[in-house]
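Proteins fold reproducibly. Next comes an illustrative record:
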Amino acid sequence: QVQLVGSGGGLVQAGGSLRLSCAASGSIFRFSAMGWYRQAPGKQRELVARIISGGSTNYADSVKGRFTISRDNAKNMVYLQMNSLKPEDTGVYYCSADQVATHTTYWGQGTQVTVSS
């Protein structure tokens, strides 16, 4: 059973920074990709950033240049460094992991990020 535990959310003023962490149970080598999604109140969940097993990354246009996704294979961790935060970044952030072998996307429990203006 795959478990993803996200953490690091909180309340921050606009222009501030936060680092989200996602701890996976077991090796993250088994995942073809890992990512962070967010869901703002009344909106659909959207992709924020994604990192594939080879290390390539992609970002939502709204966060390019401000957010950085990274992974630590030795610690089975994925991070999202968020800088220059804006009120529109507010939402619940979910860690995800895609496992090709089982055709499954796993989700963490979500961590709240609130950016005040």
About this structure: The mean pLDDT is 95.
